[in-house]
Structures are given as structure tokens and as C-alpha cells.
Amino acid sequence: MNLTEIIQPIKTELLEFERFFKKMMFSKVKLLNIISHYILRQKGKRIRPTLVFLSAKLVGDINESTFHAATLVELLHTATLIHDDVVDESDMRRGFPSLNSIWGNKVAVLVGDFFLAQGLLLSLKHKEYRFLHITSEAVRRMSEGELLEIQTSRSNDIDEEVYFRIISDKTASLISACCELGAASTTDDEVVLYKLKNFGENLGIAFQLRDDLLDYMGETSITGKPVASDIRDGKITLPLIYALKNSSRKESRRVMKIIKNNPRNKDIFYVIDFVKSYGGIDYTLKVAEEYLERAKSLISDFSDSLAKASLLKLADFVLERVS
Amino acid sequence: MNLTEIIQPIKTELLEFERFFKKMMFSKVKLLNIISHYILRQKGKRIRPTLVFLSAKLVGDINESTFHAATLVELLHTATLIHDDVVDESDMRRGFPSLNSIWGNKVAVLVGDFFLAQGLLLSLKHKEYRFLHITSEAVRRMSEGELLEIQTSRSNDIDEEVYFRIISDKTASLISACCELGAASTTDDEVVLYKLKNFGENLGIAFQLRDDLLDYMGETSITGKPVASDIRDGKITLPLIYALKNSSRKESRRVMKIIKNNPRNKDIFYVIDFVKSYGGIDYTLKVAEEYLERAKSLISDFSDSLAKASLLKLADFVLERVS
């Protein structure tokens, strides 16, 4: 994804954002400050603040509140990544050793908690209660979505409806929150807020569909994951759900048996072929395109601007290397 | 500690509280509900809600807001325990297998996140912004206090001032928050809030001093920890800080060397004797008593009531089996 072009209309704001963000990461505790410096050196892509600023600019004027929203969401995101690495026992993050691998699990979790608390305190200080509501709702949805995913992957009880509930909650919720936050920082117009919230929701779903597609297409350099990691993990995503539904009972049983018994490379190729031959890839691509069209149509009424162009470009980029 | 007597004045409220608490623990996700049932079966002592209700009753009338405060604080506490078990890789909690040992780290962390989000959403729904501020401040202090403790234990750079900063932040902050929350649910009077906040702060510090004392006195049945676990972990608490300050340079160096080199039982007994002979136990006990007196004096002006008697009794119980 070519971010340079997309962030053009909010370049100054993103630079200014770093100042806000940094300010919330430091405290009286030396150890914490050493760790915050370490985190800041491996600067992330700031995709969530980018969505906040672009959404704000699309519907109004970026202001102090927009910076609070972007800071809240990036603090939450940073805390989540740190906690994820503890749970997954990951040694690396963004090409650097993870916090847990350097300072241990306890320190990593505490640093994450500190960032969460700072996000809450920043919002409370500036009476950004709506932001807190949007963000807490996203956190609730993310945990519910991931728990539902684990539950269904254990029971194999998944269909299209459950799949979409999972990916909306675990992935689209935070992207949706970013767009809604940005809009909420400049306007109270419920129709506008509804549009941006749903723009993000549809964009987020398409993004997860792309991720699930790439897993079948072996583009490791984009997802950074080993090819077919979902199949290896016994994760059933849309391409497979569709193929299973459209194959014979005998065939679908055979594929399910393969997936649930530590498949080897030979088995993986068999499953990929099965999914392709029953149209699982084409179908998922078509559905992803529909979500992107829905996202784009939700912001089509706003008058043309650089921010609008960037958001539309962002939507186009989602399926760029897939279709 | 005899809780039955202490909770007498708020017995009905504690029962009613269970209903509020339960309601926030369930969702559409089956797996989550199974886990919540499991957690509710091993009912905790509800010490934090008890402090909330007693503090509310001391200064006013318990109302709907008091229940929100108690629920918020118990959700936060439950989430913290679950996350702690992941970080410490604990297999047991309250005599039952921990969530992480049954469902794995990922599920445990997600369930904790869900409870946190529910606590936030409950407070936002009822516009309990003051509660959110008090609680977020406590979370920030807890993470800072624990990080400072880890930092100083690595550098050995600890004196009485740093020690009190650590225990205020890591332990007293949440007890203080409970008392302030209870009071804030019934009154806006800043003087009253100040008193209850500081009652909790002093009580919390005394409670940690007692814990640190018991570690030297080997009362495993009370702390539930192995005797002298602080010495074994190289943790320097007030009894030792005092003894080190009052011994010769040569002696204090020797003790520090012992502590920092995986002490065996023989070494542990030596350190305990050292601390006792230089008055570290007596001094810590005296300081703890002073904090309890300060706590009690902060609520002495309130007119006599069953709630007041309970809070005073709670303060007396802190050092019951120690002095």
C-alpha cells in the first residue's frame, strides 16, 4: 500500500500528532521512559491516526479534539500490540525484539496497562466522553469477536453468517471506530457519524477478506505470515466456507478431516486446489469488492476534497495486489 | 480477617451487588459465558465492593451509583487477576485451575479485556465520569508503582522514600480509589472525598506494610506465599531498608551480597536475624500503626454509625495477627 500518497492531505497533522502521542508515553518512572523511547524508535505506520485525521478532514476541520482521538486510538493500539506479543510469546515486532523478549512479560503487560490508562485519562481530562464510548465499544467487540473465533474453530461450527460476525467484531470494529472518532471530533451530525462509522466497518471487513484471501494465494511478503497459515491453524475462512458449501458432502467431509489433523504441505495444496476449483477465491474477491463499493458509496455524497480522494484511494488499495 | 462482622451493615447491598456484577459478565458469545460461570463459582471475598459500600454508607445513602462504582471496581479487579495469572504463568487461582491453564493465554487475556470494556461501558452509559477518572488514575498509578518496583529491584537503588512511593502506587492506589468511589457516589463535598480517598490511601499503605512484615515473620497461612519470598526474590522492603540503614557499611554490604545471589535457607535465616536485631520489624510495625491511626483519624469526625464501626474495625484487623 502506498501510504505516502494517501497521507499527503494530513501530513502536517501527522507530524504534530507525534508530539501529542509522545507526551502521553512518558512518566516519572525511568524504566518506563527507556521503554517508550525504544517503542518510538520503531515508528509504526500510524494507519489508525491516518484514518482519524482523514475522516475528520472529510467532514469538517481538524481541531484539538481530533488529536485527542488519534492519540487515544494509537495508545490503545500500541498497548494491544504489546499485550498480543506477550500472549503469543512473540520475540519480534516490526523487525525489533519485542518488549517481552527484552524486559519480560510482567514489564510488557504493565507498560501496556500504563498506555491504556493514559488514553483514558487524556480523554477524561478533555471531556471526550463520546470518544471513550466509541473506543470501549470497539474493545468489547474485538474481544468478543476473537473469543467467538476461538469458540467456532474448536467446534468447527461455522457458516457465512458467523464468519461475518467474527470479522466485523475482531477487525472492522477498530477501523470503524477510527473513522467515527475522526468524524465525531468535528461534527455532531448523526447522519455524518453513521456514514463514517459504516465506511470504516465496510472497509475493515474488506481488509480482513483480503487478508483471508492472501492466505490462500501465498503472498507471504504482504501478510508477513507463512503461506496458508489459516489452513495450518485449522481456521475456516470465507474461501473455504464457500467451497465446502458448494461441494459434495463426501468431499467436504474429507477436506474437514484433512484440516483438523495437522495437514502437511501435500494436504495444504489439496485444500487450496479444492477451494479454487469450487470458486472460493473468486467468490471472496467478489464479496470484498462489494464491501469496498459500499464503503465508497457511503462517502460519495461529501464534496470533493483531497481527504475524500485519499479515503477512496485507500479503499482501492485494499484489493490492489489481490485481484 | 473476620469479614462476616465487617460486612454486616451492607449485607443486603452485597447480595444485590452480585446481580449487577453478573449482568456485566455475560454476552452473546457462548465461550465467554461458560468462562464467566466458572469465575462466578469461585466467588471472591468482594473486599473492594465492601470498601465502596461502607465508604458510601459512612458519608451518605447507598444508591444506584454506588452499585455502578462497586461493579466497575470488581470488573477491573477480576480482569487484573486474570491477566496477572497469564503474566505469572500461574496454574491456580482461589484453589481452582486458572483460566489460562484451562483455556490458554489468549482466551484469558481476551476475557480480561472484555471485563475491562464492560466496566468502561457501564460507567459511560450512566455518565459516571468521575468514577472513570478515579479508576483510570488508580490503573496508571498501579502500573507505574509496579514498574518502579521492578526498576529499583534491578538497580538495588532503594530508600524509604522510594519504597513508600512504590507501595502507595502499587497497592494503596486501588484501595484509596474504592473508598473515594464509594464516597463520590453519594456526595460532591470535596472535603469528604478528600478524607475518604486518604483514609483508603493510609489503610492501603498499612496493608502493604503488614504484608511485607508477614514475609519476615513466616506466617504463610495468611499471605499464602512461601516464607521470606521477598528475600528470595531480592525484593527490598521496609524492614530490611531500616536494618541496612542502621547497620555498619560492612554488614549492610554483606547482606546485600547474600540477597542478590540466590540465597539458600541458611542465608535467609541470617538475613531475618539481621533485620530483627537492627529493629527492622519493630520499626515497620510502628510505622504501620501510625498509618492506621492516620486512617482512623480521617474518618473520626463522621457521626457514629455501623458503617463507621466497620471501617474502624477493618483498620484494626490489618495488624491483628502481626503485633
From TrEMBL, chains A, B:
The similarity annotation says: Belongs to the FPP/GGPP synthase family.
The answer to keyword Transferase applying to this record is: yes
| PANTHER family from the UniProt entry | ALL TRANS-POLYPRENYL-DIPHOSPHATE SYNTHASE PDSS1, GERANYLGERANYL PYROPHOSPHATE SYNTHASE
Which Gene3D superfamilies would you find in this protein's record?
A: Farnesyl Diphosphate Synthase
Gene Ontology biological-process entries: isoprenoid biosynthetic process
**What is the protein name for this chain?**
Octaprenyl-diphosphate synthase
Give the required cofactors: Mg(2+)
Q: What Gene Ontology terms describe what this protein does at the molecular function level?
A: metal ion binding; prenyltransferase activity
Alphabetized, the UniProt keywords read: Magnesium, Metal-binding, Transferase
Q: Where are the transmembrane segments?
A: none
